[in-house]
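Hi support team,

I'm opening this ticket because the web form for multi-chain structure prediction keeps timing out on my end. I have pasted the exact lines I submitted so you can reproduce it. The total is 854 residues across two entries, so I didn't expect it to be a heavy job. Is there a limit I'm missing, or should I split the entries? Thanks in advance, R.K.
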Amino acid sequence: MAQRAVSINGVLRGLVPWAGAIVSALLVLLCLGTVLAVFLRAESAAQFSRSDWVAVRFTVTQAFLSALLSVVLAIPVARALARREFRGRHTMIALLGAPFILPVIVAILGLLAVFGRTGVFSIVLGWFGLPPVQIYGLHGVVLAHVFFNLPLAVRFLLQGWAAIPAEHFRLVASLGGGPRDVGRLLERPMLWRVLPGTFALIFLICTTSFAVALALGGGPKATTVELAIYQAFRFDFDLSKAALLAVVQLVLSGSAAIAAWKFSRQHDAGQGLDRVVQRYDRAHGRLADAAWLGFVVLLLGLPLVMVVMQGAAGFLSMPASVWAAAGRSLLVALASTCLAVTFGLALSLWLARLRGAPRALGEMVAYLTVAVSPLVMGAGLFILIFPFASPRDWALPITALVNAAMALPFVTRALMPAVEACEAEYGPLAESLRLRSWARLRYLTLPRLRRPIGFVAGLAAALSMGDLGVVALFADPEQATLPLKLYDLMGAYRMEAAAGAGLLLMGLSFGLFYLFDRGGRMNASV
Amino acid sequence: MKFPMIAAGLAMASMASAETPELIVYTYDSFVSEWGPGPAVEKAFEAQCECDLKLVGVGDGAAMLARVRLEGARTEADVVLGLDTNLTAAATETGLFANHGMDDVAFDLPVEWSDPMFLPYDWGYFAFVHDTTKTPDVPQNFKALADSDLQIVIQDPRSSTPGLGLLMWVKAAYGDEAPVIWEGLADNIVTVTKGWSEAYGMFLEGEADMVLSYTTSPAYHLIAEEDATKAAVAFDEGNYLQVEVAAKVAHTEESDLADEFLTFMVSDTFQSIIPTTNWMYPAVTPETGLPSGFETLANPSSALLFPAGDAMAVRDAALDEWLNALSQ
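Hello R.K., no limit was hit. The queue was backed up. Here is the completed structure from your submission:
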């Protein structure tokens, strides 16, 4: 008996360092194995039709326009935020992070309320005798993507501005340079370094867009590859077409991911003493800066205000099924969070030990899901499960697993630096105490990583809560998650109930993030 | 003493559940909605069958077939209700459906019916519906519609039977010229929705001037809402006919119950529910006749319809043309 206990303990002990390797194998299987499964199940080789090319072209066009607009608009906004001091500036920067965890379908609800044919914007246009605007199609898709990615771009650029040492501004000022010189000598070189990576990242995010195109696309001419995969699977049950499109999607976002990775290497702007940046060009462009900040507040704030206002009115007219869907979503989100954090931690601990080529390869696997279509993953899992069980029964566990995989790049990215710092600082001490495996995890790693774990758990929970992707493949009214339920209510034009569900979903997503993030900070003893 | 009682209780419970068998019917979303035929049909059938009728809404008609193909022999459905003649050949080919064995039903359909597998429950003409107060002047044919600047919403032919019907309609009326018509219509189409419910909802919300629906749709507004402002247009080319059908799933474990349901479906009870809930013409006119208000509906000059056997080949070619024309 004792012998056996020891050996199990030994196996477990051996498992900790290898957990990361197991997780990455699972990831490779999830990302590539599922594509293979779809391929093998396909009965005949699909022809690449003209409408498929149009989907590819549309995907690239909308991603390019979305990235370009987001980045171009982000420049004046980030500059205004960088050089102005005003009350609420910190709150505003913090709120710019909110769209990242805002459920896509809620944002669409808000955008429809503002930019739809019967929305606020059209009503205002009507006062001037202008015809209402139409949100469906390319411009609607781009608008929604700018809504999500402009804040992201602003935050990236702000980091760029923050990386310019305070001394540089002082130097330019002391040499008699005005705002024009600050732009020429400091800001433009910084922008040239930061912009390509930001552009490529947003381009990548937009190439995998599904929910936005599903809700705001305008038929065959506004279909993304992801949406085409969904249609091939759900409408035509054409697996060979789905497999073909899956490979196209992989190549498309794979190359975007490589570009993003290549361009986003950090450059050193030179070191300063890290003092508070004193700007000497504040007299200039005050009005323009205010206008840009006002624009961003309006663009991001108005749709959300509409969601809250209409949602509060519709909160009581929601059918009971909305609450049931919210419960299911909550369960899926919590399961997905557990998986994402466990996977992320295992990967980070494993990667932190590797050096050189194996490490680069490992990191690539950790970020693989950025480039892979969750719909293909879902379709593949559907086909794999089918011979053994009814995929319907597995809809929610699969959704939780895929959501965890999709959150993993962000989780790993946020955990890695903390894990490395912890190992560098306490690793030797832990080694000298022979504190290893479970004990080390329990007494050193987890307590030290409390804050980043709280943060990534919040992130993973919110992302899963708002996800409308793989669950749409298995969709079944009785198993709908809250985002899917909301989409159905919008489809049935029960707008009051949809607005209420939208508010509930937004509250749950932000609430989960807040609770986890807060939990990580509370009573943090270290 | 306790244990045997629990065991007996469990046995009773399982017997009770065995006594009320469950019949699962896949259908389209609007059929099961609270204002659709679903609730009344469920109540009426459960009163006679001593079973639990579960109507499951799985998207729109065409997506439903994809769903059944996806689930294959493992499908939970015992009956599939809501396909139409454009899909029956493809559905037959799956081998997932069984013959209904009813050849003595006196249908009141505008066409002869002899399909051994699919049983009609209602029919109607596809038509564009508009609001006579907002858009009083409407085009009377596809060419005029394409030339106008009216905004229309249509459904995706891959997921929705009305969307597919429109595809076949244009093809039946224009043949090889169909792509030209679609290219002309492209700038009129606000968006293509997944199903009928979405499109009709958009129209009612004012997001479009016209919507692809049925000549019978205005009857809903007239009878249920006492609103006479909605009208359907009978096109010069004629309107395409839709015959909505249901069939028994071959692998069902509730074969007798499924047969009973199909018999019930063409009975007076079911058929008299259809006109004022599904807003279509009943496949067998009930004894009481059609509700008043139906006589005001537009009457197409001619009924267009591809035979079910041809529809499959026509569909694939027409779908390619449609995708190409609309993706430019």
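A quick check on our side: The domain at 2-123+243-294 of chain B is CATH 3.40.190.10 (D-Maltodextrin-Binding Protein; domain 2). Let us know if the file doesn't open in your viewer.
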